[in-house]
Amino acid sequence: MDGTRDPVELGVQLLARLEHAELSLPAVIDRIETISTHPQTTRAILEEAEKRGHIDREGDTVRPSGGRFLSFESEVVSREGEFECRRCGASLITGHFMRLEAGEHGPFGSSCIRKVTGRE
């Protein structure tokens, strides 16, 4: 990340676009940790996403309520190069990046991009 993007806003937008019916809190934190591993930032992302109505939290269960999913044709782009996956740390030749209003988020490998967005 280049430091100019607000990690809370990026995290809120990521959670707003999840395709899962529901997730455990640890699974949601797994996605947030692709943006920040700082506990205060993680908490701020969860609180702001809930405040804006993007997620509903009940105990250890999180239900995304956005209903606006990422379009893999226009909002997820791939680039060739030498990358490291933000989720699993694997070396990549092709990086997949999410285009969110708060900025671009990635790179991810082909399986991690599906996991992060909820396609898998």
Percentage of residues in DSSP E strands: 25-35%
- Let me know the average pLDDT: 88
User: Which CATH-level-2 architecture of the largest domain?
Assistant: Orthogonal Bundle
Distance from first to last alpha carbon: 25 Å
Secondary structure: number of strands: 6
Whole-number radius of gyration? 13 Å
Class from helix and strand fractions: alpha+beta
Unreliable sequence segments: none
Brief summary of the model shown:
The chain is of the alpha+beta class and 120 residues long.
Commentary on this structure:
Helix content is 32%, strand content 29%. It is α+β, with helices and mostly antiparallel strands and 120 residues long. It folds into two domains: 7-64, Orthogonal Bundle (Arc Repressor Mutant, subunit A); 76-117. A three-stranded antiparallel β-sheet has the order 1-3-2. Helix 1 (7-16) crosses helix 3. The longest helix has 13 residues, at 39-51. The chain is globular, with a radius of gyration of 13 Å. The two termini are 25 Å apart.
Which keywords apply here?
120 residues, alpha+beta, Arc Repressor Mutant, subunit A, 2 domains, three-stranded antiparallel beta sheet, globular
